[in-house]
Amino acid sequence: MSSAENLVFHVRPGGCLSGTLRVPGDKSISHRSIMLGSLAEGTTRIRGFLEGEDSLATLRAFRDLGVDITGPVAGAVTIQGVGMHGLQPPAGPLDLGNSGTSMRLLAGLLAGQGLELTLIGDSSLSTRPMRRVTDPLQRMGARVETTELGTAPLRIHPVGSLKAIDYPLPVASAQIKSCLLLAGLYAEGTTRITEPAPTRDHTERMLSGFGYPVERTGASVSVEGGGTLTARDIDIPADISSAAFFLVGASIAPGSDILLQHVGINPTRDGVINILRLMGADIEILNRRDVGGEPVADLRVRSAGLRGIRIPVDQVPLAIDEFPALFVAAACAEGETVLTGAEELRVKESDRIQVMADGLTALGVRATPTPDGIVIQGGNIHGGRVGSHGDHRIAMAFAMAALRAEGEILIDDCSNVNTSFPGFAELAANAGLAIEGKKEN
Ligand code: S3P
After folding, report:
1. What is the dihedral of CA 236, 96, 226, 29, to 10 degrees?
2. pTM
């Protein structure tokens, strides 16, 4: 789609969700599977890879770095690993599109390769803070530069070697943690990262799965540089962050009953389930199992009367990507929902506090942004037109709001839904959402 075209979701009000669904593969795990598979020795075969723009940006970057990758075909990808030191200089800048995870993790992974590299992104990614990764990388001896504003493009210059650091994270961020662990694979000594609160641990789990020793002690995780990765097969579970729209949609729409299959329920990602349950949601976790080192389950969700809550601050990093959907749940709940400790939401693909507050207000919901959160008063949702600001999760959250709206909801600028959830509109329509995507100029 050309950038002049605006993909608008038109969602008619009412209805409910039903049936058995499998949402696409986990985005975080998809990125990491390409990164570690590329650096491994041997052939890595992946199933369930997310064929969304973000993880495809990572895949293309490694092709540009000389890695032989076939697929994806129906979620199957095969990588001929080049080993820890086998990446080749690319012909030009690596374009990471809208993907913050690609840029921040690659900054670490590439800092010690001895290559001259430039990482670029789209207009949203080019405004997001990058000094949170480049500052600690510089402490490791890397030469990674941002613009004067601390944003992309990132320029990586070759250095002789990296040295390990002991780094307490200033924010609870899996992207910073993962960036530094990946740089730590190339550093002399032991790199130790300490988190202020638990964040997603897919990097640590996957490193262990590829045979790389990772030590965890309390809030710290450490790796020693100089090891190797051994290729393996990876079965990527469905993304709980994509399932979240259906968890909320089925909870708020009376008469709903859905089964979400094969969803990753890693305890560093399950905040959305915990928060919805505190609000009174009816979510059953069935058939728990371990799939290649990641916990997976099927989730049955039936509609329930939700009540407003004060969201526990310790759940915030565990649900960091699910707040747009959770705000819609709050708008449909009885009473007030209060979120604090979530200032990170202001530096995601959009300022998710302001953009959601504006959209909810446009739909007649009382939503008051605060510096680090929001206060939402549950009530009636009108029809209306809202902006997604090119943010995939905002677009999908407002689509679900139509299930409880009094009139049609139109959502502008929805093409970035493809970054994390290709086929969202079709899957949601099959489940009962009256959604149609229309291109406008
Ligand atoms: C991600 C970590 C989170 C999350 C992002 C994916 C990851 O970012 O918001 O969508 O894959 O590591 P932060 O770690 O910066 O909070």
Report:
1. -10
2. 0.98
